[in-house]
Amino acid sequence: MKGLYFQQNSPNEEITFVFQERENLPVTEKNYVKLQVKACALSRINAKLLAEMKMEKELFPVGREVAGIVLDVGSKVSFFQPDDEVVGILPLDSEDPGLCEVVRVHEHYLVHKPEKVSWAEAAGAVRDGVQAYTALHYLSPLSAGKAVLIMDGASTLGTIAIQLALHRGAKVISTASSLEDKQHLERLRPPIARVVDVSHGNARVAESCLEETGGLGVDIVLDAGVRLYSEDDEPARKSQLLPHKHDILTLLGVGGHWVTTEENLQLDPPDCHCLFLKGATVAFLNDDVWNLSNVQQGKYLSTYLKRCDGEVIRWCFQAAFGGTHSTT
């Protein structure tokens, strides 16, 4: 039985992928599940995070989002039994790659797979689904009637976030970086309030949001990155497609919540004073944080999949990858 691993001897060296032969895995740990993998999603490998968490290895397993059938369980496993269909995300320190026939995983990293969701859909949607749910449930109090700005709505994360926001009855505004993305967003049902085309610049993002909300600003912002400096100091592509942090501060309403994916966000004293005057907050969305802490094991996965039944998960996944977006 072989598994796929990646190798990087130094930060500047190109990553190489290798197959390693692995022995048959017995279930030795009491709280672990032996899982036959039916589908595995290929997500990006965050080598920088691995280095910061002191998790560098000579060979690091590839593939973390898995769906499959339980083959065997440890003596203290209470949530699963053999032949259960499950989906989950392997932790960063997992020794087993998801791209393998059989893996071992702690039961807290798994939940039961809804019957109406296929193997590929479950493995492909769970990571972005958990991330979107984290942003719109744990990091910001989403509820009916609130105005939400979701940047880059045609991305997988963006589309699932839009569907979850609409499912809660929120008013959604989104941005599109191309004509294709704009058409994709306009086809979503139920429709979103406004699509702001930023393919030729993002100068009207703040103005469009204030116009759509009658000058009150949006209650929640989920960004896809922001510019921190002037256009001359930023790469051309980033300067064109991403809003400046001052645009976000302008369009954010009183008591608003800014959920950012910008890990190096820098807020100057005037920026903080603006947030203070509005009583607004900033939260950082790190999609790996839930399984970096033992306190959070299983919390996000079970909440997301219990509150969103099979139809909603399937709907979100097909919206994210349907039409002009490929599932392969």
Structural write-up:
The chain is an alpha/beta fold and 328 residues long. Helices cover 30% and strands 24% of the residues. It is built from 10 helices and 14 strands. The protein has helices at 47-52, 119-138, 156-167, 179-186, 205-212, 236-241, 245-251, 269-278, 299-307, 310-321; strands at 2-7, 16-21, 32-41, 60-61, 65-73, 85-89, 102-106, 110-112, 147-150, 171-176, 194-197, 218-222, 252-260, 281-284. The strands form 3 sheets. Strands 11-10-9-12-13-14 form a 6-stranded parallel β-sheet, sandwiched between helices. A 5-stranded antiparallel β-sheet has the order 7-3-5-6-8. The radius of gyration is 21 Å and the shape is elongated. The model is unreliable at 309-328 (pLDDT under 50).
List the helices and strands and how they pair.
Layout: E1 2-7, E2 16-21, E3 32-41, H1 47-52, E4 60-61, E5 65-73, E6 85-89, E7 102-106, E8 110-112, H2 119-138, E9 147-150, H3 156-167, E10 171-176, H4 179-186, E11 194-197, H5 205-212, E12 218-222, H6 236-241, H7 245-251, E13 252-260, H8 269-278, E14 281-284, H9 299-307, H10 310-321
Helix pairs in contact: 2-3, 2-10, 3-10, 5-7
